[in-house]
Design a protein that fits this description.
Radius of gyration: 21 Å
Largest sheet: 6 strands, parallel
Number of domains: 1
Number of strands: 9
Structural class: alpha/beta
Strand content: 5-15%
Number of helices: 18
Helix content: 40-55%
Distance between the termini: 30 Å
CATH superfamily: Aldolase class I
Length: 426
């Protein structure tokens, strides 16, 4: 089971800066072998220096060449469908945390999830990610039923993968979800610094882990339980992902290096058939700004997003991985990251339960549409609302502020950047 090799990832002394000539030499070498940990840290050490814009341009250029050689000019797509924003954990960087009384709470039923998933698949999105966070009851009782329902009602030629994102689970729980139709799990460690993890995550399943009966483990080590969740998921036959939250750790190089190390461990130990997903979550503003507890950011995520994506690809160029830029940054930064390194990406994205419903219900049978809308109103305890007012209320339940575009708009922008959205049917 995976352990963070802290001594290997922390440099013995202060990192020495790179000259442009040294950077070019390293990048030339990296066309035929992965970047070394010391080289990754040296490149990251150039952030906030006078030469960073030139270093970044070089890194993106070399990474784009490697990306074209490895993946061509295509990208695969996914979108999340959130089914609940109720949560039993307390992570101070998340709007859904248990103690956030300003957040509106909503849980939608299986039919609402299905309608939204079908809406996204009909647009040409490949993979659907079912997101439930740390809502224990929903993950325990509803997610298995939801997976079975989607597998039975959505054509297997419509969806390439059904993924899920929840709190870390036990191996038997992962095996159960795989048997119900799940293909893979989306799981970010947030930070590989255990003390920092514990400082930001104070209670609930994420802080202490759970047992096979979904009970929070008293005085359990939530950091380690989450860290080793990919081992358990791999043993259960699920496809895997890793990632750390850019900007959470002041020593961003440590988390990038730990993500690379973790990815290399998983690819070597389990040799997954599907590419291992390298996620790039960022710490965005909350939709309840008065409860936002983010510390001062030391790096400009917008400026550095494509740079980090490129470093991930250059560091893992010899492995079966997909770098995964997401909609947590502007479209310009997002597409720059895809163009330089991303083989997998999200396009149309809502980060709250029911986020796509207003659009998804437009082509639904009127009687079914009416029943679903009444159900949503019942969850909010409201009488009928106009569609724009309903959408505003649903959007207020989102986890954080992000950038939203329709899939078609994203496809056009990717095409303009020389990237085509590719379909691959299992």
């Amino acid at each position: 089971m995976y352990q963070v090799p802290v001594d290997e990832l922390v440099p013995p002394s202060a990192a020495v800066g790179l000259s442009l000539k040294e950077a070019a030499y390293i990048l030339d070498e990296a066309q035929d072998r992965p970047l070394l940990p010391s080289e990754i840290r040296a490149f990251i050490g150039m952030i906030n220096t006078p030469d960073f814009s030139k270093i970044k341009a070089m890194v993106l250029d070399y990474s784009a060449r490697l990306r074209t050689k490895k993946y061509g000019r295509s990208v695969f797509t996914m979108s999340p469908v959130e089914f609940t924003n109720r949560c039993a954990s307390n992570c101070d960087f998340c709007g859904w945390r248990a103690d956030n009384t300003q957040m509106g709470r909503l849980t939608i039923d299986e039919e609402m999830v299905e309608v939204q998933a079908q809406y996204l698949l009909e647009k040409g999105i490949d993979d659907i990610e079912l997101v439930g966070g740390d809502d224990i009851r929903f993950v325990r009782d509803a997610l298995p039923l939801l997976l079975r329902r989607l597998r039975s009602r959505i054509s297997t030629r419509s969806v390439r993968q059904l993924l899920f994102s929840t709190m870390a689970l036990t191996e038997s729980q992962y095996r159960n979800l795989a048997a119900c139709g799940a293909d893979g799990v989306i799981m970010w460690q947030e930070t590989y610094d255990e003390a920092l993890y514990n400082r930001h995550i104070s209670c609930g399943p994420k802080a202490h882990g759970i047992d096979d009966d979904f009970r929070v483990v008293q005085n359990g080590n939530g950091f380690l339980f989450r860290l080793q969740s990919q081992d358990r998921a791999a043993k259960a036959g699920l496809n895997l992902s890793v990632g750390s939250m850019l900007g959470l750790n002041k020593d961003v190089a440590f988390d990038v290096l730990a993500t690379v190390h973790h990815a290399r461990y998983l690819c070597t130990k389990y040799a997954p058939v599907r590419p291992l997903i390298i996620g790039m979550p960022t710490w965005n503003k909350l939709t309840t700004p008065e409860t936002d507890k983010r510390p001062e950011q030391l790096i400009d995520i917008e400026e550095c997003f494509s740079f980090f994506a490129s470093l991930y690809l250059l560091a893992l160029s010899d492995l079966n991985v997909w770098v995964f830029p997401t909609c947590r940054v502007s479209m310009a930064s997002h597409i720059a990251a895809v163009r330089a390194a991303g083989a997998y990406t999200s396009t149309e994205v809502k980060t709250g339960p029911g986020g796509y419903l207003v659009d998804a219900l437009r082509n639904v049978d009127p009687e079914r549409r009416r029943a679903i809308i009444e159900n949503v109103h019942g969850e909010f305890g409201d009488k009928k609302l106009r569609s724009d007012a309903l959408l505003e209320k649903i959007d207020a339940c989102e986890q954080f502020q992000h950038y939203y575009y329709h899939h078609e708009d994203f496809v056009r922008a990717l095409n303009d950047a020389g990237i085509n959205v590719r379909r691959q049917i299992s």
